[in-house]
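To close the chapter, one final illustration. This time we ask the reader to focus less on the individual chains and more on the assembly as a whole: which components sit near each other, and how the overall shape emerges from the parts.
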Amino acid sequence: MSYEQALLIAVLAGTGTYLVMHRTLTRIILGLGLLGNAVNLLILTSGDGPGTTPIIGQEGEFTDPVPQALVLTAIVIGFGVISFLLAMAYRAWTIDGDDDVEDDIADRRLAEQTDTSPESGEPT
Amino acid sequence: MSSLLPLAIVLPLTGAALSLLAINWRAAQRAISIVSAAGTTAVSVAILVGVDRNGTEVSSIGGWRADIAINLVADRFAALMLTISSTMLLAVLLYALGQRADDERSRWYHPAYMALTAGVCGAFLAGDLFNLFVWFEVLLIASYVLLTLEGNDGQIRAGTTYVVLNVIESFVLVTGIALIFAATGTLNMAMLPERLAELPDGIRLGLNLLLLIAFGLKAAVFPLFSWLPDSYPVAPSPVSAVFAGLLTKVGVYAIIRTQTLLFPDTNRTLLLVIAGLTMVIGVLGAIAQSDMKRILSFHIISQIGYMIMGLALGGVAAISATIFYMVHHIPVKTSLFLVEGIIERETGSSTLGRVSGLARRSGPLAVLFLIPAFSLAGLPPFSGFLGKTAVVTEGLDQRSWWIVGAALAVSIMTLVSMLKIWSGAFWGAPEPAPIEGEHAGILHKHPMMGAVTTAVVTLTLLIAVFAGPLYRFCERAATDVTDAASYSTAVLP
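The assembled structure is written out below.
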């Protein structure tokens, strides 16, 4: 793994993590996209260095085909999941006009109970 | 015999494809789903019988050499999990058909459900880490669709958290897999034990932790469980039944598989502490809730603790206790959610306080709830008692007093929270009031749902009755699981 690759992975993972920590789903999706790319690059670097095409009968030192197969699969899966999330963000927007990730209702109710009457509510 | 292994994945996948083609013919979709789910169950039973007779079976896809091929591997543990899971998937499918509710009427239910089946079966049979990841993704993506089938406000809210957390979990898993490949040059689970053993301790620990975090989130262990009680209750009842029974257990399966096969000599104290905290915090959460589905969801978490406890104790006896516990837990948990589904269908609510007096309205339904509830709490003579006894005895043998204490205390608290459902929903005056002049019991009104639930509850009783042979089988399975060398020689002769 070269330093440039390592740096690129670090920047992608860092910005991705920052975006994922937001409350708006669109930013989270962008963040997940960046994180996914960081992971894909990491897979690519897990093989050996460059070489010739890995075809049986080919001469010389060939590249490791496994990481490439893995990264292709990972990209396809990532594409599918991100499309699904985009559809969910759109759905959230048609339901209540924004795409904020909301608190769970039961969690919030429980938190309110423990806030107002700390002696009667059982902490979880 | 080994040619049967791909069938367990191909059948449900074909079912999913066909039912996508038949998207506008509901009757055809139902027929396709039933046939392929029943076929998958039959195939897994055949695999189970074959594996128990002839030992671990391997199928290398495409006829490649086993060291570079994508392998499907079924040892006794995998075959047992496969059988119990496909049986539950078939049962819940029939239940959903009998429910005749909106969620089953959705055109996308059947394709997604069959894809989920394929994912679960594939995850149990996967013979290399990346393939395991892929099948996890298949079942996860199917579960995203099933969870948000109606697309209403609650489902989108809970679904967002569920999907985002699981996507991040996938990234952690892929990172772990990429680093393992970089360090060892293989992902084949038969070759990894040897190559991982050559690595320095620090690197091995790091890789192990990455896999533990990824699968731990899937299995909902402490502190990675918070998504579960938020997301499962919003799904339609048959969907949450299958999620509750199976999905977390696939995570537990992956943890057991990787811990015993790839990292057999790690110190398990951390895992033991996690197991204890998972049990205690799960059951405390259950006691605080006032909705049946949420109480039951928190119970899943605390029960996962028992399975991790058996694994953390280590050794053949403890692992066989864990396997037995998993086999008992899957139908018990599923049947509790099925009963809850009948209640919700009948009364329109699962909130304690809005529903009451069910025992007076339907005695059989009360019995159907009580059996798995007592079983989950670990009362004799039900299957949960035997499972808990096995795990706790092993804890006593290994002198881990505090975890035994925690396990027993959690058992009592599980009973307390079950009694909360019992006194809330089943005792008291019937509410909402039954229609005047109505004499037919609840189960008569929903014959298919009642029949399936009864069948699953009977299965849990059968597990208790035939605990002897089943436990001996679990011991053989645990011997397979703890012996990494036999796994390697089976795959690479």
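The first helix of chain B runs from residue 4 to 21. Strands of chain B lie at 57-60, 71-74. With these observations in hand, you are ready for the problems at the end of the chapter.
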